[in-house]
Design goal:
Blueprint lengths: L7 H10 L1 H12 L6 H32 L4
Helix pairs in contact: 2-3
Keywords: Membrane, Transmembrane, Transmembrane helix
Length: 72
């Protein structure tokens, strides 16, 4: 049986980029008294990453459209 290799990019996303999400969940579960600053930082981080991904996808689409419609 062949075991598929996990791409390095997937590991970076799961372990490095999502670290604030893990910290946020840990703060919710284990902080006593309940701490609100850490989850707030996590929400801001997740929102910023989401907005950046949507904006970059839109810019790539616009760029490809411009290149495809250049007069030759």
């Amino acid at each position: 049986m062949v075991v598929p290799e996990i791409p390095v990019g997937a590991l970076v996303i799961v372990f490095l980029i999502l670290m604030p999400v893990y910290v946020t969940v840990a703060a919710w579960l284990f902080a006593e008294p309940r701490e609100y600053r850490t989850p707030a930082i996590g929400f801001v981080y997740m929102g910023a990453i989401t907005v950046a991904m949507i904006a970059s996808t839109a810019l790539l689409g616009i760029g490809f459209w411009v290149i495809a419609n250049l007069p030759l």
